[in-house]
Amino acid sequence: MKAIQLTEPRNFKVIDIEEPGAPGPGEALVRVDRVGICGTDLGGYLGKMPFFSYPRIPGHELGVEILEIGEGVENIRVGDRCSVEPYINCQACYSCRRGHTNCCEHHQTIGVMCDGGLTEKILLPARKMHPANKLSAEQCALVETLAIGCHAIDRGNPQAKESVLVIGAGPIGLSAVEFARLSGAKTIVMDRVPSRLDFCRDNMGVEHTLLAGNGTEIEELEALTDGNRADVVVDATGSNQSMAKALEYCAFKGRLVYVGITQAELALPHAPALHRRELDILASRNALAGDFTRIIQLIEDGDINTQPWITHRTSFDNMIDVFESFTRPETGVIKAVVEMG
Fold this sequence. Notes:
Blueprint: E1 2-8, E2 11-16, E3 27-37, H1 39-46, E4 61-69, E5 81-84, E6 87-88, H2 94-97, E7 108-109, E8 121-125, E9 129-131, H3 137-156, E10 163-167, H4 171-183, E11 186-191, H5 194-204, E12 208-211, H6 217-224, E13 230-235, H7 240-245, E14 250-258, H8 270-275, E15 280-283, H9 289-301, E16 310-315, H10 319-322, E17 335-339
Parallel strand pairs: 10-11, 10-13, 11-12, 13-14, 14-15, 16-17
Antiparallel strand pairs: 1-2, 3-4, 3-8, 3-17, 4-5, 5-9, 6-7
Helix pairs in contact: 3-4, 3-9
């Protein structure tokens, strides 16, 4: 059985692996139909993702079909189309016992810390399958990306009369935009790439956008927020410089959510920005099972339009040749998907 392995940064190769066996108790054997490419995969490819280990078969944004189920599995049936919750948690640590499965102390994300879905078939815990038979395989692969933004916005907890600034209009930032919009808060997006701001306006109905790096960002933000700046700021850039500067965009008593990840040291201005404004700084990692259930329903109901999301597609056979282009914003890539069949 063929798989694509990232052996080290910037080095993919096609490998042969054994066919998975029959599913054991609590397991499901699935066929992988679609694999989404996200910032984690790009970071792993570029050597900039701190949780990525090598060699690794990537692929954690998955749309799959259930082929077989093991003993005791009741939440899915053979033939179900599913989205995969790729965060494998131990179910026993302090975090898991309190329901914080997204930050399990022994957490393993498939395709990042253990092998993932860039292959034909894979065995996975059935409890991580979320049936979505009304969604296409591509939509199933988008659910995990959306779940990251869903959890980040839940961490910031914006209210309808508040404002949310999302910094970084890549896939994770755009997923946060979806849920900021659903909260009813005024949604503002900032990015350094004008084409991404155009995408937000033209395809996601975002009225208010700010071009980062022009020196007038704070003045423009204040003009949109009655001089108050943003009640909730979500930084989805993965840039330590952006993450430090993000405090300046927060209103007094605001909440700052870090959903992007950096390997660099993060130095925060204390007295003038953090302490004086009594800001809450929140980390957001992964998502919860309930986020997947909610998102599948929102897509089914038409409250989230997935049509604009997928801008690039490639086959399994061509992925290695085109992957480098997905790292370049000037190509216009928002979300790339690998078609496995």
